[in-house]
Amino acid sequence: MTNEHPHTQTVPGVAAGYGDLLSECAEGPGVWIHVPARTIVVCVLLRDQPVRYDAHWVGGRVRPCPGATQCALCTSGVGKKTRYVYTVLDTTTKQTGLLEVAPSTALEIRAAVDEAGFARGLAIAFSHEGGVKNGRLRATSRHQILRDCELPDGPDPIHVLKRQWSLPDAERVPSYR
User: How far apart are CA 90 and CA 98, in angstroms?
Assistant: First the structure.
């Protein structure tokens, strides 16, 4: 198994902005679904593939990476991480939203999807390892299938990410040396 998720979309045009990843966007507040410590959140996948992006964590904020050749943060030596964004339905709140995960969690989701043979309608339980806030997010298939149910589409992750990262043209990325 490789570290790359085989069925992903990348965020085109990320170089257009370096805004913060905020909790509000065109879809309204609460578009991001969070998994609290000591809680299991069961979500149903609403799209067949996640969106993948690379980002830098600088000064307590996420900065999207447009690629090593175009990125001031990469040339300054600031490390980056790959993130995956899934469109989901929270089965407790019945709200659709986006869930962002690390590659290790994306691989667990991929394994569940590969086992089921499809993504949309598959229920996945998310919890933090050790019940702590910063513990690794674990994904476990609930073997519940809502494929035959009428499911909403949920927010478009590419639209949300591009909108949240957009800033006026005057905004410049400072040097981080």
Answer: 10
Beta bridge partners of 123: 44
**CA-CA-CA-CA torsion for 60, 61, 64, 65, nearest 10 degrees?**
-30
Total number of domains in the chain: 1
pLDDT digits (tens, 9 = 90+) for 94-106: 999 999 999 999 9
Q: Residue 135 falls within a domain, yes or no?
A: yes
**If we measure between CA atoms, which residue out of 131, 108, 103, 117 comes closest to residue 40?**
131
DSSP 9-54: EE-TTGGG------S--TT-TT-B----TT--EEEEE-SSS-EEEE
Find out whether 55 and 71 touch, Cβ atoms under 8 Å.
no
Q: 150 near 1, Cβ under 8 Å?
A: no
Q: Which helix or strand (DSSP H or E) is residue 155 part of?
A: none
In a domain? residue 174: no
Q: Could you report the per-residue pLDDT of 126-166, keeping only the tens digit for each?
A: 999 988 888 899 999 987 777 667 889 999 998 888 887 76
Domain span at residue 28 reads 10-165
